[in-house]
Amino acid sequence: xxxxxxxxxxxxxxxxxxxxxxxxxxxxxxxxxVVTGGYSGLGLETTxxxxxxxxxxxxxxxxxxxxxxxxAAVEGCxxxxxxxxxxxxxxxxxxRINDSLDRLDLLMAVAGVMATPERRVGPxxxxxxxxxxxxxxxxxxxxxxxxxxADGARVVVNSSAGHALTDIRWDDPHFRTGYDKWLAYGQAKxxxxxxxxxxxxxxxxxxxxxxxxxxxxxxxxxxxxxPLREQIDRGWVDEQGKVIGADFKTPxxxxxxxxxxxxxxxxxxxxxxxxxxxxxARVSAPGRPMDDGGVRAYAIDADAAARLWELSLAATGATPxxx
Length: 323
Description:
This protein has helices at 19-23, 41-52, 64-70, 87-100, 127-149, 181-203, 228-233, 251-263, 302-316; strands spanning 32-36, 56-61, 77-81, 106-109, 120-121, 125-126, 154-158, 209-214, 273-276, 279-280, 283-284, 295-296. It is of the alpha/beta class. The protein has one domain: NAD(P)-binding Rossmann-like Domain (Rossmann fold), CATH 3.40.50. The strands form 3 sheets. Strands 3-2-1-4-7-8-9-10 form an 8-stranded mixed sheet, with helices on both faces. Strands 5-6 form a two-stranded antiparallel sheet. Strands 11-12 form a two-stranded parallel sheet. Helix 2 packs across helix 8 (251-263), helix 4 (87-100) packs parallel to helix 5 (127-149) and helix 5 packs parallel to helix 6. The mean pLDDT is 93.
């Protein structure tokens, strides 16, 4: 992938397209998907849409009982325990999936946290970097043989326009000093994008293609650790918590780009790209407002993606993807 590939295709869908719009007429019978965070917010919309199209969906969940309740009416899905912030839990979930499948067609990394108080997890990792990036990194590496065994597997990673807040803090990725919840979030979202770039570079010879995306601005459980007053002050919601922010999407609209990434034939033979509004995003100039859309060049840089991959391998001890 080069920045010249990072150009809109002119998709028939748009920022207002819904999950239903993207999935109309698709038959995913015989397809198996893993959807992290697949029982709330955008993940729940994603699980419902894939299952309705005939896919078998596995939902790893930090709160499996709550997940089973949320998915009780969704046929064709199963819940297994997994906490992305706990490396041992991720390895155990991956082993369980490996034991139950002979191939995996879709890995949808939808789960995430945002703007959380400072939190140390695992061996002292910064919590947002761990849950948003390192947990998904372990899962993808451990499930890679199943992805390679499929015929054209796709990995879809939810990043965010928040990546525009910062590049990777190479000298202090775990915020040992000067924790800032928004910079930590921005770094984790940049990591999501770079992860897709390198996974695609490594996986394309096995037919495994990877994409990162900005789902849009949506109020979901992602904001659960943000005080209501902060959301009000940002103009997102009113005093009663009702969404009033401009250009906010519904959960169905927010899930549309990920589902488009997972299924669109327009992306056949492509990968390592950052998507938004059901299309490939353009490269945004440094200093442009975050809400103008696009992807920062540093978030799709191949050298940075390879560097982050090696850092993540060293941190997690995950099984390396064959080169």
